[in-house]
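Following up on my earlier thread - several people asked me to post the actual chain instead of describing it. Fair enough. Here it is, all 763 residues.
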Amino acid sequence: MSRSVKTILWPSLAIMLAIMIASQYVSPQWLPLLDNLHWTLSSGASACFAWIGFRNGSLEEKRPRGWFLLGIASYFVGQLLWDVQQYFHWNAFPAPADVFYLLLGPFCLIGLLQVLNAKLEGAKKIAAWIDLSTISISVIGLVLALYLSNDTDRRLPQMLAVISYPIGLLSAASVALLINLFLRLKPCWPNYLFFLAFMIEGSIWMQWNLDVLDTQIEQGQLLKNMFSVADILIGLSAMGWRAEVSDSLKQIAISRFIQRLIPVASMFISVLTIIVIFFDTVVPIAKFVALISALLIIVLAMMRQSLLLVDSERLLEADRLINEANLRYEYLANHDVLTGLPNRRLFQDRLTHAIAMANRHHYELALLFIDIDRFKDVNDSLGHIQGDMLLVELVSRLKGRLREQDTFARIGGDEFVVLMENIESKNQAAVIAQTIIDLLEAPFTLKNNQQVVVGASIGISLFPYDAENDVQLIRNADSAMYRAKESGRNNHQFYTAELTKIAHARFTLDTQLRQGIEAKQFVLFYQPIVEYDKDTKLTKVVGVEALIRWYRNGNELVMPNDFIPFAEDTGLIVPIGKWVLQQACKQLVEWDALGLSDLKLAVNISPRQFHDANFINSIESVLNESGLSANRLTLEITEGAIMEQEDMAVEILLALKALGLRIAIDDFGTGHSSLSKLRFLPLDELKIDRAFVRNIPENSDDMHIATTILAMAKGLRLHVVAEGIETEEQLAFFAHSGCEQYQGYKFSRPLPAADLPAFIQNI
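Reply from S.P.:
Thanks for posting it. Predicted structure:
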């Protein structure tokens, strides 16, 4: 309770109490003055409390409290007018004071109804209005019947005045109580006190007016004192009234229960009114009012019942939708959305159950772990929509060839498993695995008649031979799948104990490689690319090839062949490859400052990096950041990276050429291409693989192949670089055959960046 409230409340109560006590001992002639004094004091204090509540209320609370303030202030004005009337001994009825007295109930009722309208909508609002109308009509009917049965000879304005007092106040009291039920408001003493105060005020006025109708001029002192008590209670409750919705399930249940009793309570009041009227009065108008009110309540009760039926149907429909949603949720929680197959969660449950049954009945299980080969290439080149379509078609193709009792599940992007229960032999699992591989070898036709070919690497583990539980069975099948990939893909492999060691090594390498990227443990070495004049024997460095080295833990050298294939398989090659480009281009710009401005730079691009969706953007970004001219950068791309998806590769190569870059085919002769295919590609350079250089001049076949490559490359106007030159004989052979540039240990091993300037000066 605030200081301002205490300042008003306690002195007012003290003065009122003193006046009420004094009223018991003074002569009757002073009683009207004392009554007017405590009435004025209590109604004025009530108006102050209402003003404090309005001033301190939130934006939402100010709207109803504003109407409460208007009603209570009007009542205070009515009391002041009553004091003036008493001073002049003007006892007219109704008088101006009655007009302002009567505004208390209606104004407060408007405030309450505004809150109801704001917080309810639709059928709930209609139901609330019907319930309010029902209880209000029952109250009004009772009041009218009681008044009309006592006196029907007074003038109409007087009858309207005496009837309006209790109707307005008791209606406000009813709504003040019911709004807590309809809106399920949090329990708070101001809200319930508001109802109680208006009930007291309405009952007092009802008794006062009944006394007037019975020609009892002087009311009892207790009745007069109760006016002041009710006024103070109305002001205090209006000050703190609020409409905060409760989330208590218990209160919601209680509110619903009481709401159902409202029509019953209204009918009870109506029946009671009829009984009282028919046995206690002979006034026809009173009987008529009682019957009309009862009839209206019956009509409203029927409407309310109809709403309840509609609401029940709505609840039943909601329950049905909830049940359907629950079933749908349960399905989605256990199935893959795209393919409709069991997901990892459901598969795990079935696997656990299957192992338990296999243990109990002593039979064998087989778990096939399937990884779709080249699926990421489809996603990267054709987009995820086409990739999803491929998975759907793939699942549809495989479903019909598996046994009904087998569990076929999707546990990752392109990873599937098949659980085969109660198998007769190891060969049965192998047959299914090979069937899957054969089915996936046929081309898939996607949107726009786009055809793609994929394969499957399948690992197989058996229970109870390869594992004792579900975790081991999955892990071992996964290890076998990786062995299938390392064996050339598109095949199946059974699990062996050795695979556990390999899988552990792969896991360790993955962790160390990621740590190496974070800790910047990679460095670049540069192997010179030279031009050699066979006549003058002069050698000139024209470029360098950037080669990555990994110093694991800062001192242990790991060669590219030991980690690049793994990085390619896991996708880590993409950030590594971007780092190589950034560092190499930056280094070339630093050498420019030392006067080595004529050097060209060659950088190897992995297949995974080449088909990455952001590859072109990353190249542009590196060139912009370093300031290096694009025509000084050569990207070395393997045949396999281009030939896997020729159409897409051509688009990428054209985009790179548009940037001004040079394109070289690396390790030519080891892939699946031919010079006849290469003539349609936008290439600048061809690097003869060291495999055709190593055995020259001892191997005449290699010499013939090298000569043919050089001749045809010149015909296609492709620049040729021979890799792996280590001996004078090899150099002489290629120089005589017309090769332009060379690279190999004959000239230099890969060098640290700091050593290259000195090498160029001393060559």
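The mean pLDDT is 82. That should answer part of your original question.
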